[in-house]
Every structure is written in structure tokens, then in C-alpha cells.
Amino acid sequence: xxxxxxxxxxxxxxxxxxxxxxxxxxxxxxxxxxxxxxxxxxxxxxxxxxxxxxxxxxxxxxxxxxxxxxxxxxxxxxxxxxxxxx
Length: 86
Prior knowledge:
mainly beta, Immunoglobulin-like, 3-stranded antiparallel sheet, 7 strands, elongated
């Protein structure tokens, strides 16, 4: 199983404590018919105090995060470049 991990910093620039949901999307290769523009693969709510920042760590199963479901319901892992976005 291929695992990938990354961290992202979330900063609260406001005067009050707050929370937000960090969303991670995968972006499929271009030219694969019927694929979404992007798909949600992970999320996490983070509470950040006023004027503070917090690192949020994600650990993704690459095969699961980068796969797509075709029109017949089969899960596929197409070849080609894919990326992640927030």
C-alpha cells in the first residue's frame, strides 16, 4: 500500500478564536472521459486561536485517494499525472 503524507499550516488572522474545515481534493489526469474536475479525498476540522497558526497533517492512501469510479461502478487507478489541491 502506497502512503503519502503532507502538512499544511492554517493561520487565523482574526481577533477571535475560530475553526475551519481543511479540504483536500485529488485532481485526475487530463483527458480521461467522465472524471470529475476534482474529488474530495480527505478533510479535517481545525480549531485555531486568535492570531495563531496550527499545522494539520494528512496521511493518504495513494491508491484510494487517486482512484476514480467509472460509469459501471468499478474503481480504477488510471495512469498519468495527478495532483492534490485544497
